[in-house]
Amino acid sequence: IPVYLMREAELKHGRVCMLATIGWIATDLGARFPAEAFQQVKSTVQAHDYLVENSFYMSEMLGVIGAIEVYGLWLLFKGWGGDIKREAGDFFLGKNFLPKDPKQADEMKLKELENGRLAMLAISGIITMAQSHPDQTWPYQLRDSQE
Question: In whole angstroms, what is the distance from residue 69 CA to residue 123 CA?
């Protein structure tokens, strides 16, 4: 498997997991979108099932995600084929936030990659704890069975 494809996948999964970790914690701490449909959710574990059953927002969200994925797939194949000058994971957004010095820019890219790896582990742990302790929300605490 080409390194370009593997790096693309690693960056995408890392970015999604960074967003998922923040979103999960924010939802469990009480943050909600303003619409009434979102106010009925008590925890992140219940959010998906509730919104699929009681809301049309899921189809809109899936449409937006689908459009982003099609654009990303197009960029992936154009970059991999050499039709455009593109590094793996580059969506041509946010380069103004990188330092101008190439060495510092490489350090920032490495930090994003490492934070993405950490977020993949973090969201895995959060989901595991949420499923094994459905009566709790974040931060999950292991309680003594004697209580």
Answer: 21
CA 76 to chain centre: 19
Q: What is the pTM of this model?
A: 0.85
Residue 119 token pair: 């977020």
pLDDT in tens, 16-61: 999 999 999 999 898 988 888 788 888 888 887 787 887 777 888 8
Q: What is the DSSP letter of 137?
A: -
Amino acid (1-letter code) at residue 74: W
Q: How far apart are CA 52 and CA 47, in angstroms?
A: 9
Q: Which amino acid is at 69?
A: E
Q: How many CB atoms lie within 10 A of CB 8?
A: 21
For residue range 114-144, what is the model confidence (pLDDT) as tens digits? 999 999 999 999 999 998 888 888 887 766 5
What stretches of the chain adopt beta strand conformation (E)?
Answer: none
Cα–Cα dist 51/59, whole Å: 10
CB burial of 75-107 (b: ≥16 within 10 Å; e: otherwise) equals bbeebeeeeeebebbbeeeeeeeeeeeeeeeee
Report angle CA 64, 127, 40 to the nearest 5 degrees: 60
**Of 106, 138, 104, residue with least CA distance to 23:** 138
**Do the Cβ atoms of 137 and 24 come closer than 8 Å?**
no
